[in-house]
């Protein structure tokens, strides 16, 4: 069994064939999926999917690229949704210095507010980090995010950064890039970091693993991520599946009835 801990089944890219995508995931032993909402539209869709399917869970938050659009009303709404039995985390939030839609200071303020919200509702934080590692780690420390912990989603940093994150009560989640031939850092992290601190994801529809790189990603491909981690560690894919599934179930408190 595999768990896709970060997938955007709520994305427009699945409008035509969502049921088939879900069926293919289940056929490939991806038995649970965590759908990430990051603005009004995707949060609403994530909740709908979680309410419709026993094996789908939702995470709600505001993406850093769109931080400039986030209002106090939005944050209050996210806080209210956190009480939903199928909501298992806050995010994805964090910092993205690659795109320049939202000024850095705005991103940082919205990030801090969501960390405080997560601590208030006692849910883990799902972190988006692009070209902003030092500021992400600094803010997590300053806001004492270790109290609830979280996930470094689609981790692309160094082994040293992974250890620093783990020390702050964060899990390391690896996705499709670990399968890319030129992905030095994710491969080093997969090889060096204990399985006890790893989870797997697709970030679908983005970042499809080899041999589907450049095409639309989907949760049925998460076993390819597990297979590459197994290869790098010199262990069986069954072992990777077993431990990453256990990690995700414990971390997100996943049950068929809900999470609360």
Automatic annotation (TrEMBL):
Database matches in CDD domains: TatD_DNAse
EC class name: hydrolase
Keywords of the record: Hydrolase, Metal-binding
UniProt KW Metal-binding keyword: yes
Cited PROSITE patterns: TATD_1, TATD_3
InterPro entries per record: DNase_TatD-rel_CS, Metal_Hydrolase, TatD-like, TatD/YcfH-like
GO molecular function, one term: hydrolase activity
EC identifiers of the protein: 3.1.-.-
Lineage top rank: taxon: Bacteria
Protein name, as recorded: TatD family hydrolase
Organism whose genome encodes this protein: Planococcus shenhongbingii
């Amino acid at each position: 069994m595999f768990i896709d801990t970060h997938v955007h089944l709520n994305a427009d890219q699945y409008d035509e064939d969502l049921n088939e995508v879900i069926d293919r995931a289940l056929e490939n032993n991806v038995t649970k999926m965590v759908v990430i909402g990051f603005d009004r539209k995707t949060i609403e869709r994530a909740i709908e999917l979680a309410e419709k399917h026993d094996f789908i869970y939702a995470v709600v938050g505001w993406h850093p690229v769109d931080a400039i659009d986030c209002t106090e009303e939005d944050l209050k709404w996210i806080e209210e949704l956190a009480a939903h039995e199928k909501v298992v985390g806050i995010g994805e939030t964090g910092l993205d210095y690659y795109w320049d839609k939202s000024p850095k200071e705005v991103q940082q303020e919205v990030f801090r507010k969501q960390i405080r919200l997560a601590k208030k509702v006692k849910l883990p934080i799902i972190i988006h980090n692009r070209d902003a590692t030092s500021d992400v780690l600094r803010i997590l420390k300053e806001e004492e995010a270790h109290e609830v912990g979280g996930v470094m989603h689609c981790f692309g940093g160094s082994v040293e950064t992974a250890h620093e994150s783990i020390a702050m009560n964060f899990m390391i989640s690896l996705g499709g890039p670990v399968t890319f031939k030129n992905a030095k850092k994710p491969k080093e992290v997969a090889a060096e970091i204990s399985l006890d601190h790893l989870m797997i994801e697709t970030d679908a529809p983005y970042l499809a693993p080899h041999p589907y790189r450049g095409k639309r990603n989907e949760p049925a491909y998460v076993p390819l991520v597990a297979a590459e981690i197994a290869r790098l560690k010199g262990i069986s894919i069954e072992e990777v599946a077993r431990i990453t599934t256990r990690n995700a179930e414990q971390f997100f408190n996943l049950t068929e009835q809900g999470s609360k």
